[in-house]
Design a protein that fits this description.
Strand content: 15-25%
CATH class of the largest domain: Alpha Beta
Strand order of the largest sheet: 3-2-4-5-8
Radius of gyration: 25 Å
CATH topology of the largest domain: inorganic pyrophosphatase (n-terminal core)
CATH architecture of the largest domain: Alpha-Beta Complex
Number of strands: 20
Structural class: alpha/beta
Length: 570
């Protein structure tokens, strides 16, 4: 399809400064523009960004609460206490659990774990976790990827003589004056409690768990390095910025994942058909994470921790095949709910605010994915709720310009509970209050946003000419990897191109040559075959693309990977 609904926004910078940086660091002009867009404006900043080595991993003891957490864990070791790790059922939560479990055992602490069931127990650290700790005789509970709002559960644990260490990265409850309110735990480790932006302020739950292990072993890189593959899964799953410590985690973790030394990850790769010696960052959110999440969505995620920590490849293979089957089932359940949500929207007066969709029978495990798909389709904040026995529970997904957590805080009198981030949240409310919630959150969205905020945009790093493209530029861009949220693969734009030999290849891929001022170049647009109905060799088009190196038949040539195209407006 042609991209005629989004605004194409091209980043622009003073051309003289672009030329200066290009010469100062010996890179091409388009690449200099890309660097400036990412805030890399000096040779020193470029060097730091292109070399995300473990030696630059930030000091964990700079994070508030870690010293107290380490002291309490050391006490547990010295007294022989059993520790219960309380995780979460999504990919970030189970990978964080695996890190903490392996790390504590390596440190010499006896540890077990508990993953709540999404349907039976709900989200977060609650009474079920306290009961589990009591039943196994634990004296210390360590939460990972949850707990920052678990006031009642921490109080219940304390009353039973158990200490709690909270490690989390979600938003805390705040007072009317904006001060964070935290449970009365032995230690609370959450980078979001620290003011200002630091190297670790946007860590995933797995990233925070890794920081605990890093602190326990006093920055011993040998012990810490073995956990980077697990931390990379959590980092890739939780859509955190691929900058600073997260960038180091992904780079080091992807290397371990590609090496395939951990049986569980190797088995997931093989069950998904990924070549043993090839792994890209994009495989995490699109291939690995959905399989891991499938267990927590429609089954029980406890066995995923076993998969990630087992030393037995046959056992890992069995569990990976099980996950693959769950993922296929999850896709069927999700598609049914999504189709019903779209049908519901066709009969609703959606107004200009948030979209709030609710139904009995929707599986709680897929409402978050459905919310994401509806948000992408309509570019509105979306809440999708599953109703059962008078209670509506679900997930919300936002657009960049709206802080969903802040919006829910303003609706707190209608909610039984809520939590999450600016762009994603979970919530529960009485089904009788859905109408009032829809009205209030829609009013909040309308008051907070302008009309342009609801128009989707395509952000382009630089406007270029086809003659600027080269293998050297594609290789320059590859130095910015790993890509992800906050460090997306650069998108370039070019205007007024002639089309040569457009055709469909594969299932629905648009293949053609493009020509501009006498320069011709090969291109392919994956899943863009629908555009061929509206263009031909008489058309002039604008394109948004990524220059790539195509290795084929022993040769290497430049190819444009088309991400969007539209007819050139004269």
């Amino acid at each position: 399809m042609l991209d005629d609904k989004r605004r194409w926004i091209v980043s622009r910078t003073n051309s003289e400064y672009v030329e200066y940086l290009s010469k100062a660091v010996s890179v091409s002009v388009p690449f200099a523009q890309i660097l400036i867009n990412r805030g890399i404006k000096s040779p020193q900043a470029l060097s730091a960004f292109l070399d995300p080595s473990v030696s630059k991993f930030s000091d964990p003891f700079d994070i508030k609460g870690i010293s107290a957490a380490v002291e309490r864990i050391r006490l547990a070791k010295s007294t022989g206490e059993l520790v219960l790790i309380h995780g979460d059922y999504d990919a970030d939560g189970v990978s964080a659990t695996a890190i903490m479990l392996e790390g504590l055992r390596l440190f010499g602490v006896e540890a077990r774990y508990f993953i709540p069931n999404r349907i039976t127990h709900g989200y977060g650290f609650g009474n079920a976790g306290v009961d589990k700790a009591r039943s196994v005789g634990a004296k210390l509970i360590i939460t990972v990827d949850c707990g920052i709002t678990s006031f009642d559960a921490v109080s219940a644990a304390n009353a039973l003589g158990m200490d709690v260490i909270i490690t989390d990265h979600h938003e805390a409850v705040r007072s009317e004056s904006g001060e964070p309110l935290v449970p009365d735990a032995a230690a609370v480790v959450n980078p979001k409690l620290d003011s200002g932006i630091r190297e670790w302020s946007c860590l995933s739950g797995a990233g925070v768990a890794l920081k605990i292990i890093q602190a326990l072993f006093r920055n011993n890189s040998e012990h810490m390095h073995r956990f980077f593959d697990l931390a990379a899964i959590g980092t890739g799953a939780d859509v955190v910025p691929v900058l600073d410590d997260n960038r180091i985690i992904l780079k080091e973790g992807l290397g371990l994942i590609q090496a395939g030394e951990r049986p569980g990850i190797k088995a997931i790769k093989e069950s998904a058909g990924i070549k043993a010696d090839f792994f890209k960052a994009s495989f995490l959110p699109y291939i690995v994470v959905p399989r891991i999440n499938a267990a927590g969505r429609i089954a029980d995620a406890s066995d995923v921790v076993e998969l990630l920590t087992t030393n037995s490849y046959p056992e890992a293979e069995r569990l990976a095949v099980w996950l693959n089957g769950l993922n296929l089932k999850r896709q069927e359940i999700e598609q049914q709910a999504y189709s019903e949500a779209l049908a519901m929207l066709r009969t609703m007066d959606t107004g200009r605010g948030a979209l709030v969709l609710a139904s009995e029978g929707w599986h709680q495990g897929v409402v978050g994915i459905v919310a994401s798909r509806v948000q992408e389709e309509f570019n509105r904040p979306v809440f999708v709720l599953s109703i059962e026995n008078g209670l509506a529970k679900g997930s919300g997904r936002s657009i960049p310009s709206f802080d969903m957590h802040s919006g829910l805080f303003q609706c707190r009198e209608l909610l039984k509970r809520f939590g999450g981030h600016k762009q994603a949240a979970g919530l529960a409310l009485a089904s009788d209050d859905i109408g009032r919630f829809r009205e209030k959150i829609s009013g909040i969205v309308e008051n907070a946003l302008a009309a342009d905020d609801f128009v989707p945009s395509l952000n382009i790093d630089a406007a270029v000419k086809i003659s600027d493209m080269s293998l050297a530029l594609a290789e320059e861009i590859s130095r910015l990897e790993p890509f992800g949220y906050g460090n997306e693969a650069p998108l370039l734009g070019a205007k007024g191109l002639n089309i040569i030999q457009p055709r469909i290849v594969g299932k629905n891929h648009l293949k053609m040559y493009l020509r501009q001022n006498g320069t011709k170049i090969d291109s392919i647009g994956f899943d863009l075959g629908g555009a061929l109905e509206k263009i031909d060799e008489s058309s002039l088009v604008d394109i948004a693309f990524q220059p790539t190196v195509n290795d084929w038949n022993g040769g290497r040539f430049l190819q444009l990977n088309l991400k969007a195209l539209r007819k050139t407006s004269l």
